[in-house]
Design a protein that fits this description.
CATH topology of the largest domain: Alpha-Beta Plaits
Region (Disordered): 176-196
CATH class of the largest domain: Alpha Beta
Distance between the termini: 54 Å
Strand content: 5-15%
Strand order of the largest sheet: 2-3-1-4
Number of strands: 4
Radius of gyration: 23 Å
Helix content: 40-55%
Structural class: alpha+beta
Number of helices: 10
Oligomer: single chain
Shape: elongated
């Protein structure tokens, strides 16, 4: 039963006028925003609009908090593969059409945070062990590794023949063996345990939002196809990617990118996909040991 009282004709008319006014203002703001962006980036003509755009212009027109819409915009731009500089420039173009002239710092922070979150941890889709799955967080990694192992046992075709895990430890000095970039697949030798404790100041630096954006940019530049990039611990990441001839080059690109932001000592290595459930569990525990 609907307990909402019916509006009087006068109240209904006032609501309709307000709705039309807000919609008109939001549409006008959207068009000004779009023209400003496309003057600078004509290539966005067919891909600039997203539902988050209308959410943001409506929030501004109705004088509501635009922060939730900025979060949606950051996520949408990251999911579409838009870089962080273009994402920030996009929001700035909108605010140049407003009295503020530029977006408030807190909106830039939530925009960048949402972009970083999606870039480092792509949105989850239905599990699929025939191809690389999309993951939301490290806990889901354990489930997917077990699914992959069960699939390998049932079919006798381990995914390790086609895919590999690239592990990045940003807090450790690279070991003399098992370094990524020398072979597209690891050998049968089990990885040696290394001391991966980080100096206190480096641990703090790795938690800074600005570095998070830099990391996301470097990882996605090296792996632009939307591969899952999961944060294992502060400074530890794993990428689920193809064991292709391009892997060495992509890993070298990531290493160069990390060096550019002061992480030249990062340790990178490969792990095979597990071929049975105990191996999956052992691999997961080794990956999250920090």
């Amino acid at each position: 039963m609907n307990d909402e009282r019916p509006l009087s004709p006068a109240a209904a008319e006032r609501r309709a006028r307000a709705t039309r006014r807000f919609r008109t203002e939001a549409v006008a703001l959207r068009e000004v925003w779009r023209e400003s962006v496309l003057r600078q980036r004509p290539s966005w003509t067919g891909g600039w609009w997203t539902a988050a755009v209308d959410s943001l212009t409506r929030a501004i027109a109705e004088t509501r908090d635009p922060q939730p819409a900025c979060v949606r915009l950051g996520r949408a731009r990251a999911a579409a593969g838009v870089g962080i500089d273009d994402t920030v420039a996009d929001l700035s173009a909108l605010y140049r059409a407003l009295p503020e002239g530029e977006p408030p710092d807190h909106l830039l922070e939530v925009l960048v945070g949402a972009w970083t979150e999606v870039t480092l941890v792509p949105e989850h889709t239905a599990p699929c062990v025939e191809a690389l799955p999309r993951l939301r967080d490290v806990d889901e990694l354990q489930v997917v590794l077990k699914e992959i192992a069960r699939h390998a046992q049932l079919t006798g075709t381990p995914l390790g023949n086609r895919h590999v895990l690239l592990v990045a430890d940003l807090t450790a000095v690279p070991p003399p063996t098992r370094c990524a970039g020398t072979s597209p697949k690891p050998t049968d030798e089990q990885p040696t345990e290394y001391d991966v404790s980080a100096p206190p100041d480096l641990s703090a630096v790795l938690e800074q939002p600005v570095l998070g954006v830099e990391l996301a940019t470097r990882f996605r530049t090296a792996f632009p196809a939307g591969e899952p990039i999961i944060r294992l611990w502060p400074g530890g990441y794993v990428v689920l990617t193809d064991a292709s001839a391009e892997l060495v080059g992509r890993t070298a690109s990531l290493r160069r990118g990390l060096a550019e932001i002061g992480l030249a000592t990062a340790r990178l290595w490969y792990e095979d996909f597990p071929d049975d459930v105990p191996a999956a569990q052992a691999l997961y525990q080794r990956l999250i040991r920090n």
